[in-house]
Amino acid sequence: MVEVPVPKERWSGRIGTVTLGATREQGGSRSEALEVGGETGMPFLSYEGAMLNRPLIAGEVIDRWNDLQPQVLEEFGNAAKDPAALARKWVDEWGADLVCLKLHSANPEEENRSPEEEAATVKAVLGSVGAPLIVYGCGLEEKDAKVMEAVSNIASKEKLLLCHADEAAYKSISAAAMANDHAVLSFSNLDVNLAKQINILLTDFGVRKERIVTDPLMASLGMGLEYTYSVMERIRIAALMGDSMLQVPLLCDTSPAWKAKETGEEIPGHEELKERAVWWEATTGIAAVMAGADIVVMRSPSAARIVRNAIDEFMGGR
Amino acid sequence: MPTAIEVFKFLPKKNCGKCNYPTCLAFAMQIANSKAKLEDCPFISEEAKRQFAASSAPPIRLIKFGSGKGVVQMGDETELYRHEKKFFHPTAYSLAISDSLNENEVDARIDKASRMTVERVGQILKLDSITVKNDSCDAERFAKAAERVTSRHEGAIMLISKDADAMRAAAAKIASRVPLLHAADQSNFTAMAQVAKEFNCPLVVRDERGLNELADLVSKVRTTGVEDIALDFGASDAKTLLERASIVRKVSVKRLFRGLGYPIVVMAGRGEHAVLMCMTATMKYGSLVVFDELEDFQAMPLFVLRQNIYTDPQVPIQVKPGIYPVNNPSEKAPILFTTNFSLTYFTVLADIEKSRVPAWLLVVDSEGLSVMTAFAAGKLTPEGVGKAIETSGAKQRSTRGELIIPGMVTRMSGKLQETTGLKVIVGPKESSGLPKFLKSLP
Questions:
Q1: Quick one: pLDDT at residue B151?
Q2: What are the tens digits of pLDDT across the range A98-151?
Q3: Best CATH choice for the domain A55-314 from the list 3.30.70.100, 1.20.272.10, 3.20.20.100, 3.20.20.20
Q4: With 80 as the cut, is the pLDDT of residue B256 above it?
Q5: N or C: which end of chain A has fewer CB within 10 A?
């Protein structure tokens, strides 16, 4: 019999783990704490290294429902306008591991909700689900600095993941995270060196590596997906080869898939726009986990179900 | 291809110059760069030629099937990751048609397959092949179905049967189209290999038990004289597919293990699971995916995934230069320009859409470079932008008389105003600043 060699790579590095959420015993109120990262090989290759933790799905909850597509709102039903109710649906009905709350209504050019109001939204979501929470601001640095401070304090023992810190603005969010031992999402723009650079800035500022998750910028299917895919593979390979500043779990947000024209416009001769849109996001998500994502933020529950089934299968069952 | 030093070992080291190079080493270097052939040396023995051919064979054999316009090329890959260089031959997709269908049903499926096509950033994306399946267990019916499909579809054809006689009957009818034959297994490989040799068709070798068993079967098939081989792991789940495909690719290109150096064929089945199998094969080393069923709404994302993964990392995808309407602009809407690098275009487009402000987006040909890079390399000049405005008819679309330029190229404002006669307004440096900027326009 021919003996086919098994080409097991001897990686010298491994990805660190980050814990999100804290249970009652740990001082928080989550039903369980989740660990992400810890890989010792390339994604899903069980002959190469163990995947200690399966990639997780975070259900997106935006507190400004008018930012969403009609088709997504239809899926959300009457929970669409209530973040706490929507978060519960994500966890109870749609199988999300985490909830990703985006506080868009803090935007000064829109509703301009106060940091206190946004903190109250976070409190309400924490009260309605037992899953750990990822929290984004509105994307405007000045306002987010205040929002994140309020969020950090109101959930001081919950070990949130606060998003996001980039090269231009990382100090206020890092300070807000460090004050209560929350984790921080470091964000960079599709480049291995920039991904490393922002993590160096964060650790120099005092954030521990065990509290950093990295977002390399998820470009959606058909809108530059191949760049993200290859940047992620390169980040992961560099990390496994021993580059400690890249040995952090990866987060990918697939919601940009809903900006692709294939998810929003009829194409002559190709019906079933809704199904195509769901597959557009799902394909983006599956490419993300294939390239090494540890957390995938999903917008559509139908797309999330497809990605979760894919992860289950790659892991060899739930 | 072996290195110059490895080639040198085969040479006589006489430095006689009969190959037209001064020394054997110089000659070896030319061979290693594919600029000379070993045969140019008169002293090479037949045995050395044979050994050299074996050592210079590609790690994964190039296998072709189909003819004319419908040729599918599989294999001849050299990389584990696309960023290392590129992936060469995109995963081909095939839709299966059962020979137990009647003629009308067969035609309807061919039509369905032909309609699954879309143009995207200048490429036509479509199914590459049709597979005819011998479900009827009737050789004559199988041959007839193969003939009918072949006469109505110009794509490459694959034939699936477990029965070598049925395979012979069908292959005989369509031999000139060079079908891919599926499959030789433990029980039928001698007879199947005969059919493959008889009609000079490539042959899929299938063993679902494991890679050792598959490699064993491949070596048996090779001893019958068949060299054009593809592999089927018979994987029924994505994990097995991913792991076996990864092992095969890696041992072939990194360890130079030759026993499985062939392209991989995946029988994906139907439904949601088939799409997952296809995505796995597209990203990780599959050369051909065969669907029992495939819906248009699943085919579109698969086509684009394949287009993305098989893009040459060194040659950016380019958007067609021209003027594009965003948010239903009227002639009072402003013109903005950017470059034709797809990522730049998509980012700018998304940010204008986000602003909900109607605008005309002018895409200027920068040979696929981003704004900064193109400007620095002289591929984005006031003259080029001026020309783009003329050829695209931008001034007829927008009569506002203004041009918004990327903040990164402020320096071209003066010259641009002169060339175009438009009032130049400097936009934000980063695309993300566009929503705020556009909303603040008077």
A1: 95
A2: 999 999 999 998 899 999 999 999 999 999 999 999 999 998 889 999 999 999
A3: 3.20.20.20
A4: no
A5: N
> Is pLDDT at B316 greater than 80 in this prediction?
no
B280 CB neighbours in chain A (<8 A) are: 290
Mean pLDDT for all residues in chain B = 93
Would you call A38 an interface residue with chain B, using a CB distance cutoff of 8 Å? no
B243: its two tokens: 């792991």
Sign, Cα dihedral of B309, B315, B319, B320: negative
Residue B279: which of B299, B260, B297 has the closest Cα?
B299
Q: For residue B400, what pLDDT is reported?
A: 92
Run of H or E residues at B129: strand B129-133
ipTM of this predicted structure: 0.97
Domain boundaries, chain A: 55-314
Query: Which pTM does this prediction carry?
Result: 0.89
CA distances from A65 to A75, A115, A161, A179 (A): 12, 19, 22, 31
Distance CA A155, CA A179 (A): 11
**Helix, strand, coil % in chain A, rounded to nearest 5:** 45, 15, 40
Cα A162 to Cα A176: distance, rounded to the nearest angstrom: 9
Instruction: Indicate the fold that domain B322-439 takes in CATH.
Output: Rossmann fold (3.40.50)
Angstrom distance (rounded) from CA A164 to CA A12: 29
Q: What is the pLDDT of residue A265?
A: 82
B356/A contact by beta carbon, under 8 A: no
CA angle, B48 then B52 then B57, to 5° = 155
Residues 6+ apart with CB under 8 A from A129: A87, A88, A90, A91, A99
Q: pLDDT at residue A45 above 90? A: yes
> Is B88 an 8 Å CB contact of chain A?
no
CA distance A68 to A74: 10
Does B391 contact A at CB distance below 8 Å?
no
* Nearest chain B residue (CA) to A227: B313
> Of 3.40.50.150, 3.30.450.20, 3.30.1330.40, 3.20.20.20, which CATH number belongs to B63-309?
3.20.20.20
Give the β-pairing of A17-20 and A34-37.
antiparallel
pLDDT one-digit tens code per residue, B165-201: 999 999 999 999 999 999 999 999 999 999 999 999 9
pLDDT digits (tens, 9 = 90+) for B72-88: 999 999 999 999 999 99
Chain A residues in contact with B353 (beta carbon < 8 A): 259
Fold of B4-56: 3-methyladenine DNA Glycosylase II; Chain A, domain 3 (1.10.15)
For chain B, the domains span 4-56, 63-309, 322-439
pLDDT (0 to 100) of residue B325: 93
pLDDT tens digits along A265-283: 888 888 899 999 999 999 9
**Token code pair at residue B375:** 């400007």
Q: Which of B237, B272, B313 sits opposite A230 (nearest CB)?
A: B313
Greatest Cα pair distance in chain B: 82
**Distance in angstroms (rounded) separating the CA atoms of residues B306 and B240:** 21
Residues B193/B195/B197/B198 CA torsion (nearest 10 deg): 160
Looking at every residue in chain A, the average pLDDT score rounds to 95
